[in-house]
Amino acid sequence: MAKTTIYFVSDLHGSSRCFRKFVNAAPIYGANVLILGADLAGKAIQQIERQPGGRWTTRFVGREQTVEDGPELAALEKLIADHGYYPYRAEPGELEAMQADGTLDDLFLRLMKERLAQWLTIADERLRPHGVPLYFMLGNDDPEELGELLDSAPWGTHCEGKVVWIDDDHEMISWGYSNTTPWHTYREETEPELATAIARSADQLTHPERAIFNLHAPPLATHLDDAPKLDADLQVQAVLGQVQYVPVGSSAVREAELAHQPLLGLHGHIHESPGIRRLGRTMIVNPGSDYSTGALNGALITLDKDKIKGHQLVRG
């Protein structure tokens, strides 16, 4: 069997610039399998308000911007999308009225679906001609309704909850839910629930020692899960100006990987803790995320039948 080189990224959070980089990366890195871990959706709508005389205004990345309709407005919308937000051309008071009548969430979901559908079309156009397989799933920050788009994607495999063979020797299981967070996001589970979900797939593996565990939450206390410590008001804690970090990963993921000792664990969720570590014989990876700057963090992993032949974090 020819060696398989995986290019893995996670936590793009709506950044169109990062997604374009991702689907164009296979020939650059020599990858023949692409895996998009989880957390596809952006986190906020960016209002661009209509002004008299064909002008539009918004406050974005800390400054007020006013642009003319046409190419200037289109460029502003692209900038916003590249940062992971959803630009929306609004009449004065429109979003406030939606907030008041309870329809703002419907708009947010519609914009998420439109962005994801655009991405899936791009993936089809860029990857299908070269036959590069793509695997994806939702994360904890993604509403379940987006899963229908992944199921019907023109190219790629919605891999959550399934055992898939990425080549002749390596199976992959995937689960995009996280352990509970202070923000009560769309897709969270308790540790016992996570353990049950992982076991459903892991117990179906033919060769767990050669498997890939594509699990969004990183294993607990592995330094791939260190996040800023928060107080009861969700304020970051610092001592002498230094942010304090604590492990916030999943004990269920840790226990599953120690029990099955797969070849590779692919993780995300905690943006601040990129790295490659060992958990027993299992290599575990979190590429981290810097999506809001347009920089794409990823991991390149080359697999031989029973071992990992090469590994590195990359940034572009």
Describe the structure.
- This protein is an alpha/beta fold and 316 residues long.
- The chain contains 8 helices and 22 strands.
- It has a 6-stranded mixed sheet with strand order 8-7-2-1-21-22. A 6-stranded mixed sheet has the order 9-10-13-18-20-19, covered by helices on one side.
- It is globular, with a radius of gyration of 20 Å.
Can you give keywords for this protein?
26% helix; single chain; globular; alpha/beta; 316 residues; 6-stranded mixed sheet; 8 helices
Mean pLDDT: 96
Order of SSEs: EHHEEEEHEHHEHEEEEEHEEEEEHEEEEE
Biggest beta sheet attributes: 6 strands, mixed
The low-pLDDT segments are none
Shape: globular
How would you classify the helix and strand content by structural class?
Answer: alpha/beta
Total strand segments: 22
Helix content: 25-40%
Number of alpha- plus pi-helical segments: 8
What is the strand content? 25-35%
Report how far the terminal alpha carbons are from each other: 30 Å
Rounded to the nearest angstrom, the radius of gyration is 20 Å
Going across the major beta sheet, what is the strand order?
Answer: 8-7-2-1-21-22
